[in-house]
Amino acid sequence: MPKSGKNPKKNGDEPKKRGNPGDFRGRRLEFLRSRTEELCKRSAAGMTRKWWKDVWAEYWQEFPWTLAINEEPPEDMSTYPMKSDSELTAEELALKKKTMDDTQAKLKRWFSYARTSRGASNPFARWISQLRRVDEQAPRRLVLYQSYMQDEEALVKINNRFKAEYPDLVGVKNCIKERAQIARELLAEETEEYREALKEKAEEEYEEAVEEYKSGEGAAVGEVKDAELQKESVFPGYVNHTAMLTITPRARQRLAVTVQPLLDALRALTGSHILLMTGKVIDGRFDVRTMQADLPVVEGVDQELHLSAWDPMGFKKGMNEILDGGRKAAEPNAEGPLTPLASKEDAPVVPSEAAATDAAKESMPVADAGVNEQGENEGEGVGKRRSTRKKRDAGEKRDASKKPDASKKRGGKRSAGDGDGAGDGTGDGAGDDGASEDDWEEGDWEEDVNDVEARLDALPLVKSPLRRQVRAMTPNSQANRLRQLEGGNTLYLTRESNIAWSQEQLEKLGLKESVSSLMAEVRAANKRKHDDGDGADGPSGKRRRKGADDDGYEDGSDDGGSEGDGEASGSVKDQGVARRRAGENPLQRVDGVPNWASYSKSQLVCAELGELWGKVVDLWWKREVSADFDGPAKGLKTKQRPSEVKGWIQRKRVGGPQPSITDVFGFSVTWWMWWVAMNPEWRTRLNNGRRLSRADETEGDWSELRAQTGPNGLLNVLICLRWWKAAERVVECGDWNEAVEDVLWVLQKLESSVAATGA
What we know:
Blueprint: H1 26-45, H2 49-62, H3 90-116, H4 125-128, H5 144-149, H6 152-165, H7 176-189, H8 192-215, H9 227-230, H10 249-270, E1 275-282, E2 285-292, H11 307-310, H12 312-330, H13 380-393, H14 437-444, H15 452-457, H16 464-471, H17 475-487, H18 490-508, H19 512-532, H20 571-574, H21 577-582, E3 589-590, E4 593-594, H22 595-604, H23 611-626, H24 644-650, H25 664-678, E5 685-686, E6 691-692, H26 703-706, H27 715-727, H28 734-757
Antiparallel strand pairs: 1-2, 3-4, 5-6
Helix pairs in contact: 1-3, 6-7, 16-18, 23-28, 25-27, 27-28
């Protein structure tokens, strides 16, 4: 009976395997996967046009159009024959256009499928897309000019010639082709001895890389090979035995890349706290690695406590038992618990082995075992107090003669200056009044000193500097402070920890006395104001401070006390908190330049941000000098303005910390929306209103932006760009570069419009 269907071997064709392997494989597939995440973000924000343009340029530079889609490009593209468009015939140009159009259509279909497959229909899609094997390629021998490009001195020469020969490309991403050509030319100019030495060095490095690869000891991507860094403890509180370092970074990386996405998926879908601990016996030693799953950080939402924060003492005990059991199983002859570290300033974090994936989260800090925060074992004084407490618990009566004289007490409480050993853990007790530590325990200690460490451990938000301050207090002060901390909320504990850290840093820098005297003057001034009733407005003694007018423009009063403020421009504003923090009047001039302008320029100037950014700052400064650092009462529109600008304005644009931007992409989107909103209406909106054209033929009136000088002007736009770049993790950020280019273009147009109008 004849078989139905087509004969798979007809015409000599081999039968195809099941499943469609797709058109893109090897390096092409890696190229596409590495850009899928960014496409999803851009697509959600409606900002894909510029992204597609950049992707096409990168793709055709790496994969020439004459190369078949199933062929891998050569390692050295300089050996691949390529013609410019001027050298192609009309038929070849038509073929090139058709090939590129067809390939780009396939690429878009691939991206579309990859993006939709990450949708919510499969709750694990987000994490499944991150699961992959770490198949490391064998090291390859570099061409000599490539080794030349890795030499630091040669790289300086290459960069200098690149800037001289290609000034229009300065700041453009990569430009590998041009730099490679310059490297070949410079290498040819070097001496024969230099080239031979470079060749020998490159060959030695290649042989070392091959040897590491074959032995499995090669460092994983992004992992440091520094021996000193690798000697850090793999688990807080325990010795990192030298034998543990024999675990290959490649093996740890494979585990993290495979397991971490699964942990994150289970954490998000179940809400459960998950901690994975893996152990391995290496040369008779038990090595432990940990990874944890964590929910993503959401701004404005209180995060749940880690496992170690719910029950610190129980968690520490459980970890000790697990580690001790694993060590004894791996080392039958071992006795006693694992050896604690000799010292510990601030507990290190368990190293996360997911260095090669963004899905990895930092591992969990583990409570210390028997080591205090000051880097030493329990102090002599603490041990003495605890032993005394044990005696009291056992029913041992104290000698009445040891009670302190009532005349030597101060209101039943001990002052901070009583006793040489107060707060230092020595327990000498030879203070001004001659009372010992034991004498003070029975009548004056309101809380059990034995509980101090446990109570501190129960407050995970109390960081090390604040813990050290509490330990250094006298018993009564210590008890009062602990009650305050235990009754405080998250904001209070965070603030107090930050204050303690700042005080500790000032003391290390030798500035504690200076700052204390300064703050004493401030407190005295505040007390005088309060006693005189100056500036009081109602029971609270505070004034309502406007941040913006009702019409949505920045209030001119933000400049530190402009005319028109009425009574608010008096002593309350002149001695405001922001100005005292800066230690200077923002409007006060030094050599004709206001303090706000000098400070702002110091924040903006940064040679590392490139030549274009330097031009932006120079043009902005030129406009401010021309306007004598003055501006209109109403500044830029506040609609869609990044929220971080408000704090900058409230600080009078002098002093204060740089804002912490966690969502860089969200900040960039907000900045673009604000920038587009303040630009003239005649500028054509692109990408759903999130970009602007720079077409000269449609140019109109610039008067509204041209007037924006002074502290409420374009300075706020530039400072946002500075914050954006500081928070950006990517060295080459195309979106930020485009923003700088557009601001530079606008400043140049404003400059030319001033020259044309004579305004």
